[in-house]
């Protein structure tokens, strides 16, 4: 309603003031929400640092390796970097370094006691490609008119080889990154250096490695998690030494990870 002087009456002004007040409140609330950090809907760190331990109690010809009864014990650290993320997959670079990479071979200890043509004893050791099997027996044979007679005893022991390893090429794929429990796939390529040839004396001290694995990662928070996995792990000198039997292991690994 307008007065004769042309001035707006007070009842008409009040709804406009209320509308302006509501707009101002909405603008301030929107600005405050924009300035406050949004809740992260994903369990997926941008940078990940990890410490892990891995062990295999035996080896067998799983895919490429021939050497049997080899053990592995690894202690190391890893770094991961997120490459791509959506609601289905968290794709990450993953590299590992292993300052402790131990490999164990079976050793055959042989004692031979000759009674003919002379009494003499020989001792020897060998690292077989296959597993060591204890055995004993006696043999008598004639060569060039001379009779040889001896008994033999084979016993088994182990040797641990000290080494270090690095896997600079690696990828990890976590699925369902909105969940605290995530299945994942992982794979690496790298090398291992040991203080003596593995898995036999005629092989090399420098070997190439690769692994492929799968497991479950459980997030305790958005920054910390625990991972359990199984890997197929292969060691081979790629024909750079006299012999290359190769080692295939099924490796169990537990990893603690943190980051941001």
What's the β-strand tally?
A: 11
Count of helical regions: 1
What integer is the average pLDDT? 89
- The poorly predicted ranges are 1-10, 34-38
- Secondary-structure arrangement, i.e. CATH architecture of the largest domain: Beta Barrel
CATH class of the largest domain: Mainly Beta
Helicity range: 10-25%
Order of helices and strands: HEEEEEEEEEEE
Beta-strand content estimate: over 45%
Q: In order across it, which strands form the biggest sheet?
A: 1-2-3-7-8-9-10-11
Structural class: mainly beta
Largest sheet: 8 strands, antiparallel, barrel
C-alpha-based Rg, rounded = 34 Å
Overall domain count: 2
CATH topology of the largest domain: Porin
Features:
Porin; mainly beta; 1 helix; 260 residues; 10% helix; single chain
Which helices and strands, and how do they pair?
Blueprint: H1 10-35, E1 47-56, E2 71-85, E3 89-116, E4 120-126, E5 135-143, E6 146-161, E7 163-175, E8 181-194, E9 206-219, E10 224-236, E11 247-259
Antiparallel strand pairs: 1-2, 1-11, 2-3, 3-4, 3-6, 3-7, 5-6, 7-8, 8-9, 9-10, 10-11
């Amino acid at each position: 309603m307008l007065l004769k002087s042309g001035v707006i009456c007070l009842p008409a002004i009040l709804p406009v003031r209320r509308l302006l007040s509501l707009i101002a409140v909405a603008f301030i609330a929107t600005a405050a929400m924009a300035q406050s950090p949004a809740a992260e809907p994903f369990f997926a760190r941008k940078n990940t640092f990890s410490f892990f331990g891995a062990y295999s109690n035996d080896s067998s010809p799983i895919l490429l390796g021939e050497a049997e009864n080899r053990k592995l014990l690894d202690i190391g650290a890893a770094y991961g970097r997120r490459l791509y993320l959506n609601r289905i997959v968290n794709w990450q670079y993953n590299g590992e370094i292993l300052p402790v990479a131990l490999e164990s071979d079976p050793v055959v200890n042989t004692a031979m006691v000759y009674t003919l043509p002379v009494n003499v004893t020989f001792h020897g050791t060998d690292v077989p490609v296959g597993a060591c099997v204890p055995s004993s027996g006696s043999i008598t044979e004639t060569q060039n008119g001379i009779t040889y007679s001896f008994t033999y005893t084979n016993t088994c022991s182990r040797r641990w080889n000290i080494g270090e390893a690095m896997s600079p090429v690696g990828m990890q794929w976590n699925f369902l990154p909105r969940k605290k429990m995530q299945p994942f796939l992982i794979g690496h390529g790298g090398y291992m250096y040991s203080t003596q040839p593995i898995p036999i004396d005629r092989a090399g001290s420098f070997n190439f490695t690769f692994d492929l694995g799968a497991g479950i990662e459980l997030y305790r928070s958005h920054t910390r998690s625990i991972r359990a996995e199984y890997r197929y792990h292969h060691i081979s000198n790629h024909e750079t030494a006299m012999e290359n039997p190769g080692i295939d292991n099924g490796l169990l690994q537990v990893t603690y990870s943190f980051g941001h």
